[in-house]
Amino acid sequence: MARITAGVATSHVPAIGAAIDLGKTQDDYWAPLFKGYEFGKNWIEKEKPDVILLVYNDHASAFGMDLIPTFAIGCAEEFAPSDEGWGPRPVPRVQGHPELAWHIMQSVIQDDFDLTVVNEMTVDHGLTVPLSLMFGQPEAWPCKVIPFAVNVVVYPPPSGQRCYNLGKALRRAIESFDDDLNVQVWGTGGMSHQLQGPRAGLINSEFDQDFLERIVNDPEGLAKLPHIDYVREAGSEGIELVMWMIMRGALNENVKELYRFYHVPASNTAVGHLILENS
Ligand code: DHB
Ligand code: FE
Prior knowledge:
Blueprint: E1 3-10, H1 14-21, H2 31-35, H3 38-47, E2 51-56, E3 71-74, E4 78-79, E5 94-95, H4 98-110, E6 116-118, H5 125-135, E7 144-150, H6 160-174, E8 182-188, H7 205-217, H8 219-222, H9 227-234, H10 242-249, E9 255-266, E10 269-278
Parallel strand pairs: 1-8, 2-7, 2-8, 3-6
Antiparallel strand pairs: 1-10, 3-7, 4-5, 9-10
Helix pairs in contact: 1-5, 4-6, 6-10
3,4-dihydroxybenzoic acid binds near residues 12, 13, 14, 195 and 267.
């Protein structure tokens, strides 16, 4: 059977992708950030996941006001990069796992979560920056990736509790897939940041540090945090952190924290990164 072996959480700041693509990772501004991902790069080289279920949000690259799924699963064979801002990144196309994706879709919908099936979709920095942070710049991504998109851009976002419960349903789905696969679940976005309005530039390190602690050791309690608290404390884009709750819900209640990293700033954003092993 397929096994969920670990969860990875990381911010997905587009400027990080641009720093990698433009060869600036050793610049004074960026070097401390990339140092924080050395551990993960070494770790994942040994872990060799077969599939990553990568929870991220699209930033009006693939979806727009014409179509806004709350939860969407990418069931295609392949996903091309696209993006806002700097444009499509020069990174490999993402190879999906249609068989597992369809299995997850069936299991999770019959477990009372409505997913939108997407058979054609591009993927933006929300998905490609975490891959670059963990895998560097390979010719091809070393494993299959199932994109799992969550709407946190247009109000209302799903609650942290719903995301956490969805993670549990994803776990039941993955663990009932017949093939012997090493699966990781990743949650991306955050940490605190606000890109717009009078509070643009907001960073709340105290909230972020508390979130990092509680998502590891008190996920059930953290799941009760109302969405308005994310927005008030972590900024309008800090709501991206609900996607970490999907990753956390997919893991055991007790996990082994292998790695924690926190860094401010990267562009307008506080960067957080966790590696959790299913013990
Ligand atoms: C920034 C961060 C994001 O998460 C994003 O999606 C877009 C921009 C930023 O810090 O500039
Ligand atoms: Fe984002």
